[in-house]
Specification:
It holds the Pfam family AHSA1. With about 160 residues, the chain is α+β, with helices and mostly antiparallel strands. It has a single domain (about 5-160), classed as 2-Layer Sandwich (Alpha-D-Glucose-1,6-Bisphosphate, Chain A, domain 4), CATH 3.30.530.20. It has helices spanning about 25-35, 35-40, 135-140, 145-155, 155-160; strands at about 5-10, 15-20, 50-55, 60-65, 75-85, 90-95, 110-120, 120-130. About 25% of the residues are buried.
Length: about 160
């Protein structure tokens, strides 16, 4: 399994997941740069993602929904802030209410940084999300963010090996 460490720090308001992949950073970057590849790994296996909009550039927006086993849809968005290909990108990660991707202000947004660095002949990916409060971080933890993100990230190995 690629995920090697998961930590949440209520004092610093962060959730950090570290994963190691047997592929170079450029290959791991391609997973996020290509919406069709990203759909194969974003979201747990039981809730595949569909990216409706995908603009991985500063000021870009990525809108997606995950489909549950009973056909229910869960909407989300990324508002891309900074991109340093193939090393890192930062974005605001939020939940949406509907297919127009209207922000759901009742659920927390996270300030996320995904970074990719060479490590032991492959890539070490560090996924860090920072929340506005301990309550916001606890909310996403209670919603199953660790389990969902871990199962999603663990799908990347098979994709980059293909």
């Amino acid at each position: 399994m690629p995920v090697t460490d998961v930590t949440h720090d209520l004092d610093n308001l962060t959730l950090t997941i570290v994963a190691d992949f047997a592929a170079p950073p450029k290959r791991v970057w391609e997973v996020y740069a290509d919406p069709r590849q990203l759909e194969r790994v974003w979201g747990p296996p039981t809730h595949p993602a569909t990216f409706v909009d995908h603009d991985l550039a500063p000021g870009g927006r990525m809108n997606y929904f995950m489909t549950g086993p009973e056909g229910e849809r869960y909407y989300g968005y990324w508002e891309v802030e900074d991109v340093e290909e193939p090393g890192r990108f930062t974005f605001v990660d939020g939940f949406a209410l509907d297919e127009q991707f209207t922000k759901n202000t009742k659920l927390p947004e996270g300030q996320s940084t995904f970074s990719f660095a060479e490590h032991d002949g492959g890539t070490r990916a560090t996924y860090t999300s920072t929340y506005a409060s301990a309550e916001a971080l606890q909310k996403v933890l209670d919603m199953g963010m660790v389990e969902g993100a871990t199962s999603a990230i663990n799908q990347i190995d098979e994709l980059v090996a293909a």
